[in-house]
Amino acid sequence: MNSSASVMSSTRSVPSVALRGAIFDMDGVLTDTIEFHYQTWQRLADEEGIPFDRQANEALRGLSRRDSLLRMLDGRRLPEETIQTLLDRKNQYFREFVETMTSEHLLPGVRSFLDEVRAAGIKTAVASASQNVYAVIEQLGIAEDIDTITNVYCVDRPKPAPDVFLHAAEQLGLSPQDCVVFEDAESGVEAALAAKMRVVGLGPAERVGAAHWVLPGLDGLHWSDVTAKFVDR
Ligand code: G6P
Ligand code: MG
């Protein structure tokens, strides 16, 4: 791994058990759709006169579409039919971005990290809060690198509940302790910790500092670094 990643990292103690599965959150980990989500929420907010900006968008990382809108409304109550219309419109705007996506939209380092994970015989899953996860993975051209794709609509409770990660492990035929999760959202880190998995938080410590290991992103990270950190100690 490069030195900047080492310098910015921190480790918390976790049991040393061999890793057999890598579970990735999607938005903000594999691809920078956070910007697309921001622009589409901003468009909707401007049209509806809802106060919103980039900083407010940061608080939405990892939340479902519906929970995001409710957070933006800040207690303002709207009829269910209106909420549904707004959610559909937001997604319509977002899908315009999805259609333009290609493998160019993978975040730096993702392609080579996936290659190393596959070469090591590790099973892979994507576990996202996004209803668009299947379409986005397809557009990114990594569908054949991922053994199972799941989202919070496949389970009872959204992140920060552990459900989506436990479901992903089950789909892979693995126990939680076999898996390492890569997450960029506070709620996702909380969910992965609750699932009793090893957790790599990607981003600033103020956001993902609860993770076992904090890194700026996947760029420069090697699978051997991950096993060295969690297993070969
Ligand atoms: C991810 C993003 C959120 C987004 C959510 C729902 O977790 O971090 O910002 O709101 O997915 O995405 P969707 O594609 O279903 O609207
Ligand atoms: Mg994310």
What does this structure look like?
- This protein is 44% helix and 12% strand.
- The protein has 233 residues and is an alpha/beta fold.
- It folds into two domains: 8-31 and 106-230, HAD superfamily/HAD-like (Rossmann fold, 3-Layer(aba) Sandwich), CATH 3.40.50; 34-98, Putative phosphatase, domain 2 (DNA polymerase, domain 1), CATH 1.10.150.
- It has a six-stranded parallel β-sheet with strand order 3-2-1-4-5-6.
- Helix 2 (33-48) packs across helix 5 (80-98).
- The chain is globular and about 55 Å long.
- The protein starts with a helix and ends with a helix.
- Bound molecules: 6-O-phosphono-alpha-D-glucopyranose and magnesium ion.
- The site of magnesium ion has 9 residues, from loops.
**Biggest sheet: strands side by side, in what order?**
3-2-1-4-5-6
Q: What is the total domain count?
A: 2
Largest beta-sheet characterization:
6 strands, parallel
Q: N-to-C terminal Cα separation, in Å?
A: 17 Å
Find the CATH superfamily of the largest domain.
HAD superfamily/HAD-like
H/E series: HEHHHHHEHEHEHEHEH
The shape is globular
| SSE class | alpha/beta
What's the architecture of the largest domain in CATH terms?
3-Layer(aba) Sandwich
Count of helix runs: 11
Number of strands: 6
CATH topology of the largest domain: Rossmann fold
Strand content: 5-15%
Which ligands accompany this protein? Answer: 6-O-phosphono-alpha-D-glucopyranose, magnesium ion
CATH class of the largest domain: Alpha Beta
Average pLDDT metric: 92
